[in-house]
Design goal:
heterodimer, A: about 600 residues, alpha+beta, Beta-Lactamase, Alpha-Beta Plaits, 3 domains, 20 strands, about 25% strand, rod-shaped, B: about 325 residues, alpha/beta, Rossmann fold, 2 domains, seven-stranded mixed beta sheet, five-stranded parallel beta sheet, 12 strands, elongated
């Protein structure tokens, strides 16, 4: 059998992939969309939260500075008059009491001279003090009523700022207050964004003013680089949240808002880890969903593909088995679908094939001893033809003369060649006359007429067959004599009842005839000379009208009590035209002469 | 503000709960130690439990900073996570470089050479300064406001206290500016306290100014009683003195400062470097007035502006 290249993966793989993709692609699309929307919503929410917190911090810082400004406004409501330094001093002290962030105050009269100085730490001063008219605080306050100074770090640590406020009229003078910005810490420390987010305040030059970890502020500008970078990055984003690195080097989401009056920037930030917590959770959910989906799809696709592929494999194997001749092979598929139907059809086909093979085997066997057309006839008409039965048959025996001597001399190839030609010739004649070739035995041959297929006038047919056989073999014999050894052919024909039927062992079955008539035909064959056809009285009785027959006298026959009268064919009366004719029986006729 | 600082992450606990930290507490005073109580309170607020995850080893060398030097050298060898020195004890610690040291000083730590700057200490020292130096003049001024006729001021000072000389200088300058004659009465350690007080009694001063210091803090009741007995209006640095009978006090809240110092202790134990922890300065100063003492001394405080400025009035 030709080796079959098996595209093992193809169908299974195709089904598997198709089913898998059919489940996984929509799932991934769904999960991806959900994750994207979750991300977007979270981002918007985060932006909003940070904005609210930063705005609130900026508002509170503004309220802090505005509060101080308003409080300072109290001490510059009245114009300066002579000798009121003491009253002003008390005003100043009361203001210190009222506003904890103010560390010291300078009250400056319209001429720009400091008249009263009160402080929490340093010693107070009253009376004409330093001329402060050139102080930027005084100039600024006079120009804009309110002046905010730069943030500076006192003793390299604490952030301070000066605020100056001028009265409605120049005569009210100016108050300059020193503010300890550490107190903004209360505002900034109170802002919690999520669990760990916070707000911080940076001035225009990027210095840290307030931070929940006050020690960062007190470092007097150490790490200003990070703060400055954070400020510029968040300011560039124009009020929307940006992902960046926080002042401590960790990734954060930050948003900046300006506190306009003092020009500070409030940055609200939340560690990225926390800010994206819910996004991460959503992504994980999607991922888990996808993984479950993939596993589910794998199992489903595998199962479906197996359900499809398995029966097909079974069918393929079945075909292979049947190809190898196992017609009893059956396929069991219980898928309750077209495949099961296919399997049923397949089984039916296998059964049909088995039956027809049995039939053809039988025909082949029949053809061994029947002419092909007879064999077909037997096969297709009635099986019982071959059954054992007793009937009248014509038995024809033929036998080569001088063959034994020939085999002793000739090469084996030559012997076989002779036999082959001999068998072919005999077989062809038998087939032509629709007789039954019972067997070849060396140089002998046995042919039966009227069994198993009955025919009209079997004796006639038997004689014609014998004549044709004699003629055919005689025409061959001429070519065989080359070896210097003449080969002849004798035929015996007898008719009578015999038991016919198939006989044999296991696969080897032969159709044969048993009875006196067979023995008689054989004896007659033995008696016949080369070229002679001997008949028994029964045949003679049937065909004497049609053929020229001559008695050669009574001869004792083995197995018979008395001698039988035996006849020989002299010439054909009703033979078909063109066939070789036998003029007369010529005992001892040399093959060479007739050739 | 300090209150908020303390209240904020009170739940925070030392991360490695199995670790037991050893903290040396060094003081030149004897127990009872009010500062230690404040510090302990702060540690508890940060989630430390003494004996469980923190061990406080107390080293007291009464009036003898020299004795603490031995402790300091022991500190350099032993497995100590942190040293906290209170007041004069810091002097004995200046040579220690191996262990982080927290201090609480009245004077200026930059001047003492403990830190490079207040914002960035740069070494193994950090802590808190009470700005006594700046407040020294302010105390004289307040006293003068209560006693407009103040002419002679007895200044009672523990000479062992670091930065004490600077404080005296600032006080003297302020007194001279206000036309007051300061009488400097130094004493060295607890042993000289009695004799010092006796000297102050003999100084014929109009008022008594006591420098804030662990030693005078511990003996505040004795000093306050002495002042009342000698009819001396007294001025102190911390409110505890007033509770003990002092007339006036102006300065930062001690207990809160030590409480806050515990937060720095926590941060250092968690691995932060003292070099980058700025020295903390108090922002709020308490003016406390003891009206009972004023009555005893026959001083009418209503005449001055002191009462509306007082953060606390003891009646």
């Amino acid at each position: 059998m030709r080796p079959v290249t098996r595209p093992r993966r193809s169908l299974f793989f195709k089904y598997f992939i198709t089913l898998f993709v059919a489940v996984v692609v929509p799932l991934m699309l769904g999960a991806g969309t959900e994750a994207w929307f979750a991300f977007r919503d979270n981002r918007l929410y985060l932006n909003e939260i940070l904005q609210v917190e930063a705005r609130s911090a900026a508002d509170r810082i503004q309220a802090f500075t505005d509060g101080i400004r308003d409080q300072l406004g109290w001490v510059v409501q009245f114009p300066w008059t002579q000798g009121e330094d003491e009253r002003r001093r008390i005003d100043g002290l009361r203001l210190l009491q009222q506003v904890p962030a103010i560390v010291s105050l300078s009250l400056i009269d319209p001429s720009g001279t400091e008249r009263v100085f009160v402080s929490r730490v340093s010693m107070n001063r009253t009376g004409h003090g330093a001329d402060m008219s050139a102080d930027p605080a005084v100039i600024g306050a006079r120009a804009n009523r309110v002046w905010y100074g730069m943030v500076h770090y006192r003793r390299d640590s604490e952030p301070y700022m000066r605020i100056a406020v001028a009265g409605n009229r120049a005569a009210a003078g100016v108050v300059v207050a020193d503010i300890n910005l550490k107190l903004i810490w209360d505002i900034i420390a109170g802002i919690k964004i999520g669990d760990t987010g916070h707000a911080l305040v940076v001035d225009d030059s990027g210095r840290l003013i307030a931070h929940p970890d006050i020690s960062l502020v007190l470092r007097s500008g150490a790490g200003a680089g990070d703060i400055n970078r954070l400020k510029s990055v968040t300011s560039e984003a124009n009020g929307s949240a940006v992902s960046t690195t926080g002042e401590d080097g960790k990734p954060v989401v930050a948003l900046a808002v300006r506190a306009p009056n003092v020009g500070w920037t409030v940055i609200a930030e939340q560690p990225a880890l926390e800010a994206y917590e819910s996004i991460r959770a959503a992504l994980w959910r999607s991922l888990i969903l996808i993984v479950i989906g993939i596993v589910f799809a794998l199992v489903l696709a595998y199962w479906r593909a197996c359900r499809m592929w398995g029966p097909i494999r079974q069918l393929e194997k079945g075909v292979e088995r049947i190809g190898m001749g196992q017609f009893d092979h059956r396929i069991t598929i219980q898928s309750r679908d077209e495949l099961e139907q296919l399997a049923l059809r397949f089984n039916e086909m296998a059964e049909e094939l088995g039956t027809s093979q049995l039939k053809s085997e039988r025909i082949n066997r029949l053809k061994q001893f029947l002419a092909p057309q007879v064999a077909e006839l037997v096969e297709h008409s009635d099986q019982r033809l071959l059954d054992a039965q007793r009937r009248e048959v014509v038995a024809i025996f033929g036998d080569l003369r001088g063959f034994t001597a020939f085999t002793a001399r000739a090469e084996p190839e030559a012997i076989l060649a002779v036999l082959r030609q001999y068998y072919e010739a005999v077989g062809a004649v038998t087939s032509r006359h629709e007789a039954t070739l019972i067997r070849f035995a060396g140089d002998g041959v046995m042919v039966l007429v009227n069994a198993p297929v009955a025919c009209e006038n079997p004796a006639h047919r038997g004689i014609r067959l014998a004549i044709d056989m004699q003629a055919a073999v005689q025409s061959l014999a001429g070519t065989w004599s080359a070896g210097g050894c003449a080969i002849g052919f004798g035929v015996g024909v007898a008719m009578g009842p015999a038991t016919v039927g198939t006989l044999g062992y296991q696969g080897r079955l032969d159709y044969t005839a048993i009875g006196n008539v067979v023995n008689l035909a054989s004896r007659l064959c033995s008696l016949a000379d080369d070229g002679q056809i001997l008949l028994d009285p029964t045949v003679h009785e049937r065909v004497k009208e049609s053929f020229a027959l001559a008695s050669i006298g009574e001869r004792p026959i083995k197995g018979y009590d008395r001698a039988l009268e035996i006849f020989a064919v002299v010439s054909m009366v009703a033979g078909p035209a063109g066939e070789p004719r036998l003029e007369r029986p010529r005992p001892g006729l040399a093959l060479a002469e007739t050739a | 503000m300090l209150g908020a600082a303390l209240a904020c992450p009170a739940a925070a606990l030392a991360e490695d709960s199995r670790r037991v930290y050893r903290i040396y507490w060094l003081s030149t005073q004897a127990q009872p130690d009010p500062f230690l109580d404040g510090f302990r309170e702060g540690l508890r607020a940060r989630g430390y439990v003494e004996g469980k995850n923190v061990v406080l080893e107390l080293h007291y060398a009464i009036g003898n900073p020299q004795a603490l030097r031995e402790v300091a050298s022991e500190l350099r060898r032993g497995k100590v996570d942190l040293a906290v020195s209170s007041g004069p004890a810091t002097r004995a610690m200046t040579a220690v470089e191996e262990v982080p040291v927290l201090f609480a000083l009245s004077g200026d730590p930059v001047e003492l050479g403990l830190v490079k700057s207040l914002g960035q200490p740069g070494g193994n020292f950090t802590g808190s300064t009470f700005l006594s130096l700046e407040l020294a003049g302010k105390r004289v001024e307040l006293l003068k406001e209560v006693l407009p006729n103040l002419r002679k001021l007895a200044v009672f000072s523990n000479a062992n206290h670091p930065g004490e000389q600077s404080e005296w200088r600032a006080t003297r300058e302020a007194a001279q500016k206000l036309g007051i004659e300061p009488v400097y009465i130094p004493f060295s350690g607890a042993s000289e306290l009695e004799s010092g007080l006796a000297k102050a009694g003999e100084a014929h001063a109009d008022a008594l100014l006591v420098f804030p210091d662990v030693l005078t803090m511990v003996h505040r009741a004795k000093i306050a009683d002495f002042a009342i007995a000698h009819r001396l209006p007294s001025m102190f640095g911390w409110s505890e003195y007033c509770d003990a009978g002092g007339l006036l006090s102006y300065g930062a809240n001690q207990r809160a400062t030590y409480f806050w110092l515990a937060t720095y202790a926590d941060r250092i134990l968690r691995g932060e470097k003292p070099a980058v922890l700025p020295v903390f300065q108090p922002t709020r100063f308490e003016l406390v007035v003891n009206l009972r003492t004023a009555e005893q001394l026959g001083i009418d405080l209503d005449k001055s502006s002191i009462l509306f400025r007082a953060n606390r009035v003891i009646e």
